[in-house]
User: What shape does this take?
Amino acid sequence: MMRSRVRKIVVGIAVGLAGTMFAVHAVMTFFFVSPDNYVGISGRSILDSYMKPIFGQNWQLFSPDPIESDMGMVIRAELVDPSGAKRQTEFFDTTSANNIDRVLHTPLPDRNARLASTVLALYNQQVSVMRRELANEDRARDGLPEYKRNELGPLHGTTDFEPTAEEMRRTNPGQRNVISHLKRVLAHVGLEAARQRWGPDVQAVQIRVVRHEFPRFSQRGNPDVGKVQHWTLGWWSAKEVKA
Assistant: This one.
């Protein structure tokens, strides 16, 4: 009798744990694959850690063409000498350095090696979505059809990396807050990378975003296809980033 009761308790606990794990997995999967929203963006690091514990996931793994572009972060810093004089460093490619130092010959690479690229991609995506929505508002006013989701490229590829003050004014408050938050995270990543490179005396950091556009697979042998774009952002003081 006692053994039967213990067995039922054990089975009940096991079923409860399995149900809880399934529910957590279902919620995490839902927000991971759902369109951009506040919960998914705010908890992106948690979702990525759960859904991509070691290796990244991307549908391009199964598509006929490889990745089309890659974004990196180049930084320089402003330092103060013991005499009080300020000087600026040369630009340093922190993205490539992180990938080499933290991934090469490492069976379990540090996830922070992809942090800069991840933040850049999220920021770029949010700005692109914002521009598509603003463009659709203008097209709707003119009686034109909306841009589709896969038509983000033409809206963003020939414009500045950062949104203009007018674009930020026109967008909705939720999206404005997300973009502002991601920009602050980007500045924080740049400052930490600068201090790792030049020490704790870094007073300010400047980020240059570099985008490598690769040729399509069918044109991989054409040396004239593909381009490199870069956007140099403003300076962030260490006090401003840490505030």
Notes: The beta strands are 69-80, 86-88, 92-93, 202-213, 227-237. Confidence is low (pLDDT under 50) at residues 152-158. The chain has nine helices and five strands. The CA atoms of residues 48 and 158 lie 30 Å apart.
